[in-house]
Amino acid sequence: MISSSPTLGSATFSDVITQYPQDEILEQIHACSTSQVEQALSAERPNLRDFMALISPAAQEYLEPMAQRSQQITRQRFGNNIYLYTPMYLSNECNNGCKYCGFNASNKIPRATLSMGAIEKEARIIHDYGFRHILLLTGEASKLADNQYLVDAIERIKPLFSSISIEVYPMDTSGYAQVIEAGVDGLTVYQETYNPELYADLHPYGKKRNYTYRLDAPDRAGTAGMRRIGVGALLGLGNFVSEAFYTGLHARHLAKRYWRSQVSVSFPRIRPADGGFAPLEIVSDAQLVQMLCAMRLLLPDAGLYLSTRESATLRDNMMPLGITHMSAGSCTAPGGHSKDASATEQFAINDDRTPEGMNAIIKAKGLEAVWKDWDTAFLNRDTAVANIHAG
């Protein structure tokens, strides 16, 4: 049987995950009973064993009480707030061969890397929408969009935003320290799949093929003092319950070790993209709700993100259940916000409502849209020092 708490100390997640063999975890989750689900729902603070029950097939008939408890915890921890952000793609150049991604280096698509002037133009449009939280994204092409390019872009747009996050290639600790110094306070790194054999098959070439280096990227960011760290699996690649478990395990590890950083979880499902990749596993709407609610019970203080990959109807229905952050007005191609995009998008979005439209829906749900992250006082160099000493 597994331990209910991973080893901390100086361990990174690649050390921790070895304590939870995939075959054993799957067997234990599928063996969970309805009585274990009920016990998990009644636990004051569910542990990993409870989490396994909540993501198991046995919990599928308990979605209503799971949703009620998830909603209650979310309102207690976050009030009625839904934080809004939008992505801005800087480049779709990439040297990786990820089979599921529209930016796959083998795809014969129009490519572009934005100039600093184009970046500022995009940023000002996003700023005029009302956003003060922005997510910057690139492919992985170090000769075209490296750390210095990111630093230049961050410094160019920093006066427009109170919070800047990145979803880019994995960096070493000094690289994360460099972008933090420039003004970044948030990082998202999808592991894509936590199954190492499947990961190797889906990433036949490129730097991203290194499973362990990507797995430990959030640890390196935490050591560097990143204020917010987000993880997730690309749902539709690996076995659903396995990916849900390891995502929760990863987020829990980060929350315990880098306690000064806020940890978040995203729930991206595969969308159509150039290359025509079809999901290897179908993740249903009910499973998505189950994973969201189980994650909230395991991690009551985590930010939970839902993007425009999902339909407007599903996002509206999931919004009150535990979501704290939602994207709006999204475009997944460089230059998309200014309508200057000549490059291909990474994937097709599903919810194309305007930021104003999302604001109206959020208010109709009795919630409040928050456009700005005011917690800038948290950003200081002492965070990095404290995290290093804690490790």
CATH class placement: Alpha Beta
- Counting H and I runs of at least 4 residues, what is the number of helices? 16
Q: Give the CA-CA distance, first to last residue.
A: 27 Å
CATH topology: TIM Barrel
Helix content: 40-55%
- The gross shape turns out to be globular
By helix and strand content, what is the structural category? alpha/beta
User: In this structure, how is the largest beta sheet organized?
Assistant: 8 strands, parallel, barrel
Strands ordered across the widest β-sheet? 1-2-3-4-5-6-7-8
Mean pLDDT: 91
Based on CA atoms alone, the radius of gyration comes out at: 20 Å
Report the portion of residues in β strands: 5-15%
Low-confidence blocks of residues: 3-8, 375-379, 381-391
The count of domains is: 1
Within CATH, the superfamily carries the name Aldolase class I
Which CATH architecture would you pick? Answer: Alpha-Beta Barrel
Beta-strand segment tally: 9
Give helix and strand order, one letter per element, not per position.
HHHHHEHEHEHEHHHEHEHEHEHEH
What secondary-structure arrangement, pairings included, does this model have?
Blueprint: H1 13-16, H2 22-30, H3 34-42, H4 48-54, H5 63-78, E1 81-89, H6 116-129, E2 133-137, H7 147-157, E3 163-167, H8 173-182, E4 186-192, H9 196-202, H10 211-215, H11 217-224, E5 228-233, H12 240-257, E6 262-266, H13 285-298, E7 303-306, H14 312-318, E8 325-327, H15 355-364, E9 368-370, H16 382-390
